[in-house]
Amino acid sequence: MPATDPFDHDAALAACARGDRQALAQIYGLEGRYLLGVALRIVRQRQSAEDVLHDAFVSIWQRAGSFDPARGAGRGWIYSVVRHAALNWVRSHAREVPVDEEGQAALENEVALARHATQLDPAETRVDLGRLEACLERLEAERRECIVLAYLDGCSHGEIAQRTQKPLGTVKSWIQRGMRSLRECMA
Amino acid sequence: MNPNDTTPPSADDALDALAGDYVLGTLSATTRREVEARMRREPALREAVEAWEERLHPLVALAEPVEPSPALWRRIDASVSAAAAPRRTASRTGWWSSLQLWRGLAGAGFAAAALMAAVLVTRIEPAPATQFIVVLVAPQDKAPGWVVQAAADARRLSLTPLGSITVPSDKSLQFWTKADGWRGPVSLGLVTPGQTLQVPLDKLPPLEPNQLFELTLEPANGSPLDRPTGPIQFIGRAVKVL
Fold first, then answer.
1. How far apart are CA B85 and CA B240, in angstroms?
2. In sequence order, what E strands does chain B have?
């Protein structure tokens, strides 16, 4: 997913809207594995994540005509369609939070991973998050973790509270304040 | 503690917080559905959601890529083919009207509209130097509603109505443009239905082929933001004529 990718997502969406199936195939060929990665982090079951990606691509095809390039980038629009399809799936399937020992260990690993992924040490950062990165770095670590667990792993407030072993109210207020700081920082 | 933490939240803050939570993904299934329904009729909420999508989008780069199984694309392709067939004959509203629109812009309908517009343009203003034409059509039925014409050297363009339309008294029509590569759309001003609008272009780069033009329905004094907030009424892309 190189930042300088010359692929024109806006043009590909316009082509989809004209009924050009090749354009949809191009989007899939370029973004499919990254989009499945995004869906799988949220859905956490391989088959369901593929189902979500299937539905999302049909949706992209059907809604391509409503994409308005004046209101945002095509690439972001495509990722939003997939993320919200995954979020809708996970919220309507009321994911059970595993509480057994093995599940708890897995969760702790995941929290550690999220922590690692958000440490954002310039020497270690694998990807460039641009302005967002600088703004995330200014947040307190626990607020940053909560935001990443929600956005990337599709965790609800309750799940984040369980994972981070913090009271629900604390998690909610961390997220609320973290989001407000992000908004100000990126204004 | 941040001093902002103690400021009582305004209605705007509440809307923005809801939009942020929607994009972040922490809302329940029920609330998510409510937000999605409200977005369709509340431009301010949709606008706030779009802003949050843009802010947080870079985070997707933290998800490790996962190779889809080879069967997945075949499934998608089959579903899309199955969905494509009835669309050609159906005349539903919604996204399909937009699809019709774009197909129309690309196909014969657009050529006919452009031809019609060209004839009309030469009648209205016999300037030989017209180099760009945009036919703005309604998303629902592709009916041409306005013509934009500009000479490449002249630093202005004109927006000419092709018919009469009515705008609710508490609303206005706002004219926008965006070329590929621009960060966002630029307002060209408010439009009075039935009247030709002349727009100086001295603050804009020269027109480009395929540049997007649209008229959106906005509050009486125009969009409160630096971009459209209301539904598209007419839309089209610039075509170079020589």
1. 33
2. 130-137, 144-151, 156-161, 171-178, 186-191, 197-200, 212-219, 232-237, 239-240
Q: What are phi and psi of B63, to 5 degrees?
A: -80, 130
Which residues sit opposite B218 in a β-bridge? B172
Nearest residue of chain B to residue A55 (CA atoms): B76
d(CA A37, CA B62): 9
Smallest Cα–Cα separation from A153: which of A94, A98, A83? Answer: A83
Query: Within an 8 Å CB–CB cutoff, is residue A28 touching chain B?
Result: yes
Nearest CB to B59: which of A42, A66, A152?
A: A152
> Tens of pLDDT along B143-197?
888 888 887 666 788 898 887 788 888 889 999 998 887 888 888 888 988 888 8
What tokens appear for A53 in the block?
A: 């990606």
Q: CB–CB of A186/B55 below 8 Å?
A: yes
Q: Which residues of B touch A184 (CB under 8 A)?
A: 4
DSSP string covering chain A, please? --TT----HHHHHHHHHTT-HHHHHHHHHHHHHHHHHHHHHHH--HHHHHHHHHHHHHHHHHHGGG--GGGS-HHHHHHHHHHHHHHHHHHHTTPPPP-SHHHHHHHHHHHHHHHHHTT--TTT--S--THHHHHHHTS-HHHHHHHHHHHHH---HHHHHHHHT--HHHHHHHHHHHHHHHHHHH-
Residues of B in contact with A49 (CB under 8 A): 66
Residue-level pLDDT, tens digit, chain A, 187 residues: 444 557 999 999 999 999 999 999 999 999 999 999 999 999 999 999 999 999 999 999 999 998 998 888 999 999 999 999 999 999 988 655 444 455 455 555 665 555 555 554 443 445 668 889 999 999 999 999 999 999 999 999 999 999 999 999 999 999 999 999 999 999 8
Structure tokens at A59: 């949706």
Strands (E) across A9-163 are located at: none
Q: Which DSSP helix (H) or strand (E) runs through B48?
A: helix B43-56
ipTM (interface pTM): 0.85
Q: Is A23 within 8 Å of chain B by CB?
A: no
Phi, psi of B233 (to 5 degrees): -100, -40
How many Cα atoms occupy the beta-carbon half-sphere of A107 within 13 Å? 17
In the numeric block, which tokens belong to residue B47?
Answer: 């606008």
Residues A50, B178: C-beta atoms closer than 8 Å? no
Whether residue A132 and residue B29 make contact (CB cut-off 8 A), yes or no, is no
